[in-house]
Amino acid sequence: MTYFFRPALTAFIILSSYACFANAQTEDKLQFSGFARLIMGYLDDSNAEYAGYDNSISLGEQSLLGLQADYQFSDTISLTSQLVGHTNERRESGLEWLYVTYKPNKAFQVKLGKQRLPFFNYSDSLDVGFAYPWLTLPKQFYETSFFSTFEGLLANYEFPVSVLLINLEGYWGYYDDDIYSPDGGVETKVTGLFGFNTSVTWKNWNARASYNQGNTELTLLSASQFGEQLRQVGFERSADWLDPDGLIQFYQFSVNYEDLNYFLRSEIAKMEGESGPVPDIDSFYVSVGYNFYPYTVYLSYSKRNLYYNHPENEIPFGVSDQLNALAGGYVAVTNGFLDDKSAGTKIGIRWDWRSNVALKAEATHIDADEKISGDFTLRDLGNFDGSAILYQLGLEWVF
Amino acid sequence: MNRYLYLLILCFLGPVKTAMANDALIIVANTPDASIQLTRQQVRNLFMGGALSYDLNAVALPPENHTRVLFNTKVVGLTESRIQSYWAQMRFTGRKKAPKEINNEQQVLEYLKTHQGSIGYLPAGMPLPDELTVVYQIN
């Protein structure tokens, strides 16, 4: 039950520290709010692990508590901080947002500080389960972005044109932290990180397109050392492939529709990794839902195709024992970067019990290739046949 | 005989017409420019935190309020739960803030009277002071 104490402790520390601050301020200038998720899951297959869930009931994968404080310095300048305590030990608890906002009018705002990356529709609200209909976001799509925060500048401008409402957004900054991998954290630096997106709203329709890029430096020691060894004996092309540093680009496009009775949410994305160990990923999801207030039922299908541009082996076999060992090592290393295809089909229901509390139930059927890399959401624990169902119940609360 | 039939029809129509009148809404603004007229789309954008050519600040009624339910249904075109989830996303991503909530229609009227640039929705037929302008109406 330790996973209950971590967010509770985080919450206590945050509230205690803010309480001292709050006493000295007027109520209007300082505002607190928060969100919480209590999510239970069970995977029906003992040979696999999906999104951290295995063949036992678990509350400790997605449950969390987030607290936000907003302080308004003046009509145009404010400070926002958000702390999130995760029950999942693989996710780092602590400061997710800390930024200053300059908002001279309703149409324009600039934020400076630590923020969430706005790659996709829900990238900046991944932890606020109350904000989306699904219990778990379509993993095959939302796991595409390996890092979710950045430090830098984000500007947003919104304006009406005839019957359209247009929103333009751009950001620039860097990322310097670990990224999650089932085998542990990978030290990552992303410089020259920037992106822009535009969304257009017309009546009940909304379309969004975005482009993002960054130069990544991954600390993959074994790959780098082996690459250096290859370079010393003249196999430059093979050494280059193993160099994990390089440009990553994300492209995204989405179309959404919603009215009193129905909704459609769809998103498609492409990620291109320049270096060998960073894969290319094509992914999409389509969800349709029906509202009968206070209930919403939905169906969703998502798919991901992850693949590496494996080069031909340039190291000859059969020349010498030393080259044989090198060639064998190279083949073994590159074969470790497995292509990975998976799909997820969801059916679920959301019940808005109160205006700020929702209960959700969801079943997700996962359909994957029999051979999977295990580097991402889905892991083969031995003899996994590529098919499993995740059952989940959840409570979402905002306050 | 036709007269009785006519009266009978009126008896049935009467409550229906009253109910329709009660369900009509007016969008009221405290603005020096009394010529402003908005479209439904503009009103929707404004109450969902969107930008508009006019500098108006929206105020809303609480979630359980009947007038708010009518406004959600007729103008915004979304359920209360979807509106709440939208505002959760906006608030925790620092994008927009939900309109200030005021307890009831009478207090909304008082607020609008005393705050220039404010805009709110009220049931049609509510007596309005001269300083307020109806910028949109929906039956």
Automatic annotation (TrEMBL), chain A:
Domain called Porin: residue spans: 14-369
Record protein name field: Porin domain-containing protein
A Pfam family matched in the record: Porin_4
Entry's Gene Ontology molecular function annotations: porin activity
Signal peptide (residue range): 1-24
Taxonomic path: Bacteria, Pseudomonadati, Pseudomonadota, Gammaproteobacteria, Alteromonadales
Keywords for this protein: Signal
Gene Ontology cellular-component annotations: membrane
UniProtKB/TrEMBL annotation, chain B:
Keywords: Signal
Top-level taxon of origin: Bacteria
Record carries keyword Signal: yes
Gene3D superfamilies for this protein: Periplasmic binding protein-like II
Signal peptide span: 1-21
Name recorded for this polypeptide: Phosphate ABC transporter substrate-binding protein
Species the sequence originates in: Paraglaciecola mesophila
